[in-house]
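Problem statement: downstream parser choked on a complex file, so we are re-checking the raw output for the manganese (II) ion run. The parser issue turned out to be on our end (a line-ending mismatch), but while we're here, posting the original submission so the record is complete.
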Amino acid sequence: MHHKSLSQYLAEQVLAGAVTPELKQLIERVAGACVAIGALVAKGAVADILGSAGTENVQGEMQKLLDVVSNNLLIEATESSGLLAALVSEEMEEPYQIPEAHPKGPYLLLFDPLDGSSNIDVNISIGTIFSVLECPKGLSKPDTAAFLQPGSKQLAAGFVVYGPSTLMVLTVGRGAVGFTLDRDAGFFVLTQEKVSIPVDTSEFAINASNMRNWEPPVRRYIDECLAGKTGARGRDFNMRWVASMVADVYRTLWRGGIFMYPKDAKNKEGRLRLMYEANPMSFIVEQAGGAATDGCRRILDIQPTGLHQRVGVILGSKNEVEHVSAYHKA
Ligand code: AHG
Ligand code: MN
Ligand code: MN
């Protein structure tokens, strides 16, 4: 069967007026970097990319070698493009300014170069998450304030999963679409024209080791799931936790269910990062017909106050997300 390439898909979106030719090029460059990251991931220890980099990132987390290598590949693929005004990464404290030698462009790029770092060394799916915003006009060196736009302003968002297959889910605001890397061709091809989350499902994803710290609405929701058929929900639930957001959200998009990393007594602001984890994933999930909240607010409505701020995340099938939200209002 012949599959449309990512470039062909984006060319159609240009004709339809959904993206500019420049945004098409930017997405292609990011996808190209992800193909390169995926090739390294597939080589594993043979490419000497496993293990620690011996440095700490801005969140005080030990960086893995692959965190650093992926960050560099994404920068190299985009900085000279003339498409970017600046970029922000989980691995860099401040916005990265485009070197003077390169022309600047209209977009701001944000990314988590390597999501699921704890899974790198144990051969479990990991990924990359990215988000594109428009740079406010007239800024030659976009500072932090230029990036602090709510998720509803995203022009495009996507994530890649480096698993048995390398997959990408993308939105430019006209639904969510799925691609698979054709390893022989070396580029992504369209394999799911319309990603659509099943509405009612019975699978939840949460790190249960945090249970003692959960807030009452989350505890109530999970307790009722665990109670199964004879409990308040009247049906049995299943549980999954990969500990790579990309893989957990991918499964949730395909099979339905709910993914939660809520704020709790220990992680008072939540664990996941708003700008380059929660926002792009929420944009995609909404475009696939699902919902995303921090319990009280739609994630895409949150006005960010910091580049690396954290947020509680509850996303997936609409009915389940609404169920948890209702417990937060009770
Ligand atoms: P990162 O590797 O970019 O720091 O993100 C890891 C995140 C996310 O992918 C995942 O859902 C979560 O951390 C897993 O956390 P636990 O180790 O607490 O389960
Ligand atoms: Mn991450
Ligand atoms: Mn990361």
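For whoever reads this later: The domain at 203-329 is CATH 3.40.190.80 (D-Maltodextrin-Binding Protein; domain 2).
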